[in-house]
Amino acid sequence: MSEDAKLNAYLDRVGFAGSIAPNLSTLQALHLAHPTAIAFENIEPLVGRPVLLDRASIEQKLVAGKRGGYCYEQNLLFMRVLKSLGYTVTGLAARILWNRPEGAVGQRSHMAMAVELGGTTYLADVGFGGLTLTAPLKLKTGIEQETPHETFRITGEEPVYRLEALVGEEWRPLYQFETTEQFEIDYEAPNWFQSTHPSSRFKQRLVVARPGRGRRLALDNNHLTIHTIGGETERRELESVIEIREVLSSQFGIVLGEDAAFDAVMGELLDAEAAAFAQPAIPR
């Protein structure tokens, strides 16, 4: 397939039909279109299949196969598309801070990007899951930046910065990132760890997320959350693998087809959830 055909296939996949001139307007439009079309998900690590980062594998899975992926797959795809359009893009590495104790130091286990445009550097990231950015942010501290979903800010100073989101009335840290350039080979080792090590969350639970118009959807095993931006949050418990599959298709746009490994793993996780729920309370 020619490079033009691959680009057109990607643009069709994310539902983008505007100008592809490498300017801020195009970057903003693509940064919204990508995560709303391609869900964050960890099905491959969960069922024990490898996560491949070469271009052909990612395009086959996320574009042609109408599947999702996690940060390395999502952001490598987005970075390659931006470069093909003429943007200057640098891969970055980040340490996750979300839901971790203050001061805890984690691995550089996340990928983000810096996009240089018109003398301004932007942080781009279409693969953070439940709080994935839906717009690029100026790499500038001391300002609050609105997106189609939440408000974000960047703190710190060169070369180490921190991305924070306004959740309710509280600023919550997402990750700490450095501006040192990372090359594609640099993501191979952390990708292998995240997709194969028993301690990785992606080996333990189903994690799916997708932003929609004015809302965010998340699936943690069989716990579905639909959060309306600035409004109420709906929560549902899915009771069967069939129901999980239906929600993956209808709410997250994930086309699985026959997948006995997924059905077996999800059946085990549902059984474990039911057993934990049925445990009697410990008398006090």
Topology (elements, then pairings):
Layout: H1 3-14, H2 24-37, E1 40-41, H3 43-47, H4 55-64, H5 71-85, E2 88-96, E3 108-117, E4 120-124, E5 137-138, E6 144-146, E7 151-157, E8 160-167, E9 170-182, H6 188-196, E10 207-212, E11 215-220, E12 223-228, E13 233-237, H7 241-250, H8 260-278
Antiparallel strand pairs: 1-10, 2-3, 2-9, 3-4, 4-5, 6-7, 7-8, 8-9, 10-11, 11-12, 12-13
Helix pairs in contact: 4-5
* Outline: globular
Q: Give me the CATH fold name of the largest domain.
A: Arylamine N-acetyltransferase fold
Give the helix tally.
8
Q: In order across it, which strands form the biggest sheet?
A: 5-4-3-2-9-8-7-6
Number of domains: 2
How would you sum up this structure, described in words?
- The chain is α+β, with helices and mostly antiparallel strands and 284 residues long.
- It has 2 domains: 3-190, Arylamine N-acetyltransferase fold (2-Layer Sandwich), CATH 3.30.2140; 200-276, Arylamine N-acetyltransferase fold.
- 33% of the residues lie in helices and 29% in strands.
- The strands form 2 sheets. The chain has an 8-stranded antiparallel beta sheet with strand order 5-4-3-2-9-8-7-6. Strands 1-10-11-12-13 form a 5-stranded antiparallel beta sheet.
- A hairpin with a 2-residue loop joins strand 10 (207-212) and strand 11.
- Helix 4 crosses helix 5.
- The radius of gyration is 19 Å and the shape is globular.
- The relative contact order is 0.14.
- The model has no long low-confidence stretch (mean pLDDT 95).
- InterPro entries: Arylamine_N-AcTrfase (IPR001447), Papain-like_cys_pep_sf (IPR038765).
- Belongs to the arylamine N-acetyltransferase family.
- GO terms for molecular function: acetyltransferase activity.
